[in-house]
Design a protein that fits this description.
- The chain has about 220 residues and is an alpha+beta fold.
- The protein contains 8 helices and 7 strands.
- The protein has a 7-stranded mixed β-sheet, covered by helices on one side.
- This is TF-B3 domain-containing protein.
- Keywords: DNA-binding, Nucleus, Transcription, Transcription regulation.
- Pfam families: B3.
């Protein structure tokens, strides 16, 4: 019977040792705290509102700049071009052909003693170009090889002096003033008749006359 008593004694000692270790580690208190936390409801977290950042204050202009007058805004603004009819900027093909045909008829009626050429007006020539190019064949046969002043004479005998630039075969600065003064427009046709070495009689056939004569 000594062996069973020895076994029971050893088991009792082991249980006491384990209990002592549990007391040292305080595991039973930890288990109770876990059970209590599981039953206790969790507090609702406080929500914090986010506020939008206020817009930055307007930029302050310095006293020197603020005293200046407000500058005009030129963006996306088109200035109307001079020398154009307000209701017709580009000629139709019919009006353009009409003016060219009339210019050829006039040119054929002019005296063959005075050479001439026909120059149709484009939008650029009629409004903003500072040059008027002369046909190369006419330039080679009848115009000087060096720069000179030439004169354009309109149908009212008004003379307009302007430089001839031989290198570019063109009438230079002054042409734009002539175009504006005579209200030239896209599609018009001009007949230049050389009546003197450096003088041209200019006849204007207007594209707008197509509507006056054909659609009265």
């Amino acid at each position: 019977m000594a062996e069973p008593n020895s076994y029971e004694e050893q088991r009792r000692r082991q249980v006491e040792e384990n209990k002592r270790k549990l007391d040292e580690l305080r595991l039973h208190c930890l288990s109770a705290a876990v059970r209590e936390a599981a039953v206790k409801p969790m507090p609702t977290p406080e929500l914090k509102l986010r506020y939008l950042r206020p817009p930055p204050p307007p930029t302050r202009r310095s006293g020197r700049v603020a005293s200046l007058p407000k500058q005009p805004d030129y963006r996306n603004k088109k200035t109307p071009r001079r020398g154009l009819s307000p209701d017709r900027v580009y000629a139709t093909d019919e009006a353009r052909d009409y003016a060219f045909t009339k210019a050829k008829e006039l040119n054929n009626q002019l005296s063959s003693d005075y050479p001439s050429f026909i120059k149709p007006m484009t939008h650029s020539y009629a409004t903003r170009s500072g040059y008027l190019h002369i046909p190369p064949q006419f330039k080679k046969r009848y115009l000087p090889w060096s720069d000179e002043m030439i004169f354009l004479v309109d149908e009212e005998d008004g003379e307009f002096p302007m430089p001839y630039i031989a290198q570019h075969s063109a009438i230079g600065s002054g042409w734009n003033s002539f175009a504006i003064a005579h209200k030239l427009a896209d599609g018009d046709c001009l007949v230049f008749q050389r009546v003197h070495r450096t003088k041209f009689k200019v006849y204007i056939i207007r594209a707008s006359s197509y509507y006056e004569n054909e659609h009265c």
